[in-house]
Write a structure and sequence with these properties.
Low-confidence stretches: 303-312
Mean pLDDT: 89
Number of strands: 13
Strand content: 25-35%
Strand order of the largest sheet: 5-6-7-3-8-9
Order of helices and strands: EEEHEHEHHHEHEHEEHEEEHEH
Number of helices: 10
Radius of gyration: 24 Å
Length: 312
């Protein structure tokens, strides 16, 4: 049976400005993250992810609703909570003239029970760059140093804001493994990322935000389950048969078939082609993925917003 969530957000809103100039970056948000869970917060640029993280981390106050981290208010009880948090922001602010090792040692000095500096440099594949000044690190190396600062204090709750941006493929995979190891050790993690394969690989639960609200949430399987698959092919010489439960549209020379039963639809299509001695060219059948769901959400809600604007 699950206990109290480590992160509990109920009806949270974050408003900037006032009066006619007011802007709601986040609206009536509900989130719950259990101990040892890796929760992904996804969304397009401007969806409200960073504003949400800032409130949960205690860096800014919510305009409405309640937020609890480890059972406490992250703003009012910041002094008690802060030693248990690890935070990796989108952009680090380490002194440029210190070496990577000196920067991490300085950060460790703010922690009550830090890990050894060289051990953490090893974990983020930075041991051989420890004596390099921060200003001479590549973008990917700087991100790995930011991650090192976030984990050196042995956090119970870790916030990672786009942790693998700028990393090469090998470094990304190594970072994924480090994050998975941290989760396996019991650390509760909240992650934002623009890499949907990263979310699919790492997240236990996720929420997709659009224009300040959560529009889909659950496991990756939950989010993908209700989304149809697509079959694409070049227009054949004959009209397609009626495909049970499928929607067919033509885009120039391309036929796009949307179906929730991709295997049955594809089988029916191939049998029809065989019976009529037709070669199906450009055939591409894809089950729903987090990427297709994400893109369809952005298209769907932007389309609705356009219609609302036109009717206003």
């Amino acid at each position: 049976m699950k206990g109290d969530p480590v992160i509990d957000v109920v009806g949270m809103s974050r408003r900037y400005g006032s009066g006619k100039e007011a802007f709601d970056a986040v609206r009536n948000l509900d989130l719950s993250v259990q101990e040892g869970e890796l929760f992904g917060l996804l969304g397009t640029n401007g969806a409200g992810k960073t504003s949400t993280l800032e409130v949960i981390q205690g860096l800014s106050r919510s305009s409405a609703g309640t937020v609890r981290v480890l059972g406490m208010d992250p703003v009012r009880n910041r002094k008690q909570i802060r030693p248990s948090l690890g935070i990796m922001l989108q952009k680090g602010g380490l002194p440029q003239d210190l070496t990577a090792r000196e920067s991490l040692a300085m950060w460790a000095g703010t922690c009550s029970n830090p890990l050894p500096v060289d051990e953490v440099l090893e974990r983020v594949d930075m041991r051989d760059r420890g004596d390099t000044r921060v200003k001479f690190l590549s973008g990917g190396e700087a991100r790995r140093l930011d991650l090192a600062c976030a984990i050196i204090g042995r956090p119970l709750v870790l916030f990672l804001d786009e942790p693998t941006t700028g990393l090469d493929p090998e470094s990304r995979r190594n970072t994924w493994q480090l994050i998975a190891d941290l989760k396996a050790s019991g650390v509760t993690i909240m992650l934002t990322t623009h890499y949907l394969d990263e979310a699919e690989s790492l997240c236990d639960q996720l929420a997709i935000m659009h224009r300040g609200s959560v529009v889909r949430s659950g496991t990756v399987a939950d989010v993908v389950a209700d989304h149809p698959a697509q079959i694409k092919l070049h227009r054949p010489g004959l009209p397609l048969p009626a495909l049970a439960g499928a929607e067919v549209r033509v885009e120039n020379d391309l036929v796009v078939i949307t179906t929730r039963t991709v295997q049955e639809t594809l089988t029916e299509l191939l049998l029809w082609a065989q019976h009529n001695n037709i070669l199906l060219t450009g055939l591409d059948a894809r089950a729903a993925s987090l990427e297709t769901v994400f893109l369809s959400i952005a298209d769907q809600f932007d389309h609705h917003a356009t219609l609302e604007g036109a009717s206003a």
